[in-house]
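ok trying this again, last paste got cut off
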Amino acid sequence: MSIFYTDIFVLPLPETHKFPMSKYSLLRERVGQDHRFTESDLKVPPAASDEQILRVHSENYLERVKSGELTYKEIRRIGFPWSPQMVERSRRSTGATIAAVNSALVCGLGINLAGGTHHAFRDHGEGYCVFNDSLVAARHFQETGHLNRVLIVDADVHQGNGTASIAAHDDSIFTFSIHGEKNFPYYKEQSDLDIALPDDIGDQAYLSALKNGMEDALERSNPDLMMYLAGADPYEEDRFGRLKLTKGGLAERDRIVMEQCRFAGLPLTIAMAGGYAPNVHDTVDIHFATVIRAWELFGLAKRTLPRPRPQSFKSP
């Protein structure tokens, strides 16, 4: 298995900024210290190219991101101050998901220790998301002929509105979002399958809804690959969570998603998405548990995937 990380993920921010940027380096440290992984498992991702990004985003938007010509309102909507480092971080986070999909197609699993930037629309970003990494990766491999149909399972507490909007008329990409009904974004787009949940739903009702949703999504999408956005923000202590899931409930969420993916014989790509617990180590615990569950289900198992996969496809 391949796990993609770079220190470029950690964007320098003002001390008063609310985004928990340290979670990425802390997660990489946890993975690096665990006996189940070696240094060869951790790989530095390439940056996504203009050509790859333009399969999803408008040329005008990309050029203004690159040149720093976004308006004050657009920058505020994204939530990060513009800088060349912000642009490179966004490229690398997207490139990490492209590389993780390549790993999944070759050996069954690929993990991006960042990514899940599902609030990025074709012509603007918002909610800490600049480029939509899942869709850029999906369309890259569709364009190169390695994928036909993709299922995106978005279990971040916030609806993947950018993903839903961009893929709205694309029958080759099935979007499934399970999220808080009253949470950001306040105006929701329409995914192929949305499960909007009330505040304080708790583990049992959430997991029941997720299981039914996974069965429905898999049956309707008939995918060649699954992308899983494993947000840590449904956690009961998260600043923005509101669904009141425990760490145990989130671990069970991961098990349900990954076991159904494995049972369907699909390669799996994982991105971390959101997580904003007051104690950043709680967020890291949840993300790390996701990585461990993936290692248990995919890293150890010797499986033969029923769908054709590239045998010598090099990293993009």
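PB: full thing came through this time. The longest strand covers residues 173-180.
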